[in-house]
Structures are given as C-alpha cells and as structure tokens.
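Working notes for the structural subgroup meeting. M.R. asked for a predicted model of this chain before we commit to crystallization trials. I am recording the input and output together here so anyone reviewing the notebook later can reproduce the run.

Input as submitted:
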Amino acid sequence: MITPDAMGTFALIVGLLTVTPGLDTALILRTAALGHRRRAWGVALGIQSGTLVWGVLTSLGVAELLNASHFAYEALRWAGAAYLVWMGGRLLWAATGHASSESPPTAGAGDKCGTGAGDTLLGGWRQGCVTNLLNPKMGAFYVAVLPQFIPAGGSHLASGVLLTGVHILLAVIWACALIAFARVLRDRLQRPSARRCLDRITGTVIAAFGIRLALGQ
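Returned structure, recorded in token form:
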C-alpha cells in the first residue's frame, strides 16, 4: 500500500511538473483564449488521456521497452519532433497571414493553424492526446519516477494507476485555472493584433519544443 508520505512526495513532483510553463500550458491557453472553451477542455482531457496511457504502460513494464530500445525511442522522438515543428510552423504561418487583414475573425477561423477546425471536444482531445503520446520524454519521466513510488509486494497496476490519477487530478485543476484565466482575457485576446501575437508566441513555443526534442535536449 502506498504510504501518505510517498503519495505526498509524488504529488509534489508531478504538481511542480504540471505548473511549470511548457507545451501543455501553451496549447490549453491558446485554445481557450480564442474562445474555444470546449476544444480547450478537449485538449486538456486528451493530454491527461495520454498521461493515463503512459502510467498504465509504465506500471505494466511496457514503457521500459522504450528506454531499452534505442530504435523505438528515436522513432518516437523524431515523430514527436516533426509533429510539434509542423504544428508550431502552421501557427506562425497563420500569424503571418493574419497580418494582412485586420478584420475580425469569423466563427471557427481561429483554428486554421494546424490545430484542427472548430470548437469541438473531440478535435481538442485528439490534438492533446497525440501531442502527449508522441512525447518520449513523458514516457522517460514515468519510467524513471513512477516505479520508485510503487510499493513492493502490491499490485503494480493498481498502484501505478492510483499515482497517475493523482497526476491527472492536479493537471485537471491546473487546466481549470488556465481556462478560467483565458476566459477573463478573452475579449482582449480575440483582437486581430492580440491574436497574431498569441499565435506567434504559441507557435514559437511549440516549434521550439519540437526542435529541442529533435536535438535530444
């Protein structure tokens, strides 16, 4: 059985990981800032679906194969890097296109940036899930950290899922805060000039993560 101390330590580690500004935060904020609340929730739930998959695979020992197999890790790393660079590049390209027109965006136009179309929960879930699953660093983190908190003699799967559930709970709470924050600033952020700036920042962040992943950093 997982002790309260172990649970607390794990919660602290994943809590700090969750609130550290990064790819997940950028995706949720950008989507919510465009007024696409359902899609933002889809992105958040998709990311956590990927987290659950990594937690289950690690608990079953499957994720260790990713670290053991250089080819598998490299294939996933390059696939993830290509996806992130493509998504970030589309956002930057869209921001350049927006610069030619100051007219207000039409409904649904805010997602012509490589992130899908429309304010749909399923589209956001697919984007968040793919982004998480194509990140081998997430798998490496779980392989390195999760087993240290699984007690010997107990069910690895049950303990792993419980710990992953703590991570997911904290991440969902953080997503609530991000979406609420973006909602407060939505009117300002939906101005054409603000949207271009938001797309440039988000696109740069996402593309930079992709490049760093490709470089193995």
